[in-house]
């Protein structure tokens, strides 16, 4: 069954992006899609272990939000579906791939795997296996930015934090507690609900008393925005406005992005609960195809430029796999390393 909830309208013509901005968004989404496709291939070939949750279909949310931030300056906090968020935040594809292979060259030194991607240099606060676990972490990051700026007088402490989580997490206690604190203290944070309609195998409409999650923001006196999560330009427009508010000290925003994952909950999920009609409906709204069509229609690029980006990204992914395959396993003698903080 296809959800009766309609996607919000957005005037794409008013997006006013430049060719450079459009190609950055396109390249980032293609990077996410091809990376995840390669992950599926490597998983089924036995190169990856455990649970691997792919992001196919949701790329517009990650690219649209993260590319509105300052690279290596603002903070991004993820979920267990974290590979693409890390890539958008600037973590090199080879380091993410090596982490998925459990190698010492991975961004988490091979200790995290698929669900615990982390990179301090890129201000990527990590992926979290437990539902809603990242929400308090992101809220804490936003609090320290606010404290350093207001209490310690650091004029450079104007970082914004973006916190991603799914529709299932919006029913957890951390969601309500943290939104309350963020509103009370006017924290510079954007809470992004990636509503892909399903919390593992539970349909969203069956699990919450108020399916329109963005409306919950009103309880805390903060702006709540609903956006078409399959339209990267719509997401990017909302992101830029929310980032500007947060950086100006005007407090948090709750963004509900209506999106859809094209694959099952994880690569171990046969995806038998969702109907064929529903999956076909959403696959026809592929965000990468939608942006490509817009860029061509607006004469912001030609087809060969997009194909060259596709080739470039595929080469980057292939190189990332080789890097991961040729990297060393973590040394057994370092089993207990990174458990506690180390002296510089």
From TrEMBL:
Residues 28-332 form the Dehydrogenase E1 component domain. The gene is pdhA. It catalyses: N(6)-[(R)-lipoyl]-L-lysyl-[protein] + pyruvate + H(+) = N(6)-[(R)-S(8)-acetyldihydrolipoyl]-L-lysyl-[protein] + CO2. It is an enzyme of class 1 (oxidoreductase). The pyruvate dehydrogenase complex catalyzes the overall conversion of pyruvate to acetyl-CoA and CO(2). Its EC number is 1.2.4.1. InterPro entries: DH_E1, PDH_E1_Alpha_Subunit, Pyrv_DH_E1_asu_subgrp-y, THDP-binding. GO terms for biological process: pyruvate decarboxylation to acetyl-CoA. Heterodimer of an alpha and a beta chain. This is Pyruvate dehydrogenase E1 component subunit alpha. Gene3D superfamilies: 3.40.50.970. It comes from Gomphosphaeria aponina SAG 52.96 = DSM 107014. One of its GO terms (molecular function) is pyruvate dehydrogenase (acetyl-transferring) activity. Its cofactor is thiamine diphosphate. Keywords: Oxidoreductase, Pyruvate, Thiamine pyrophosphate.
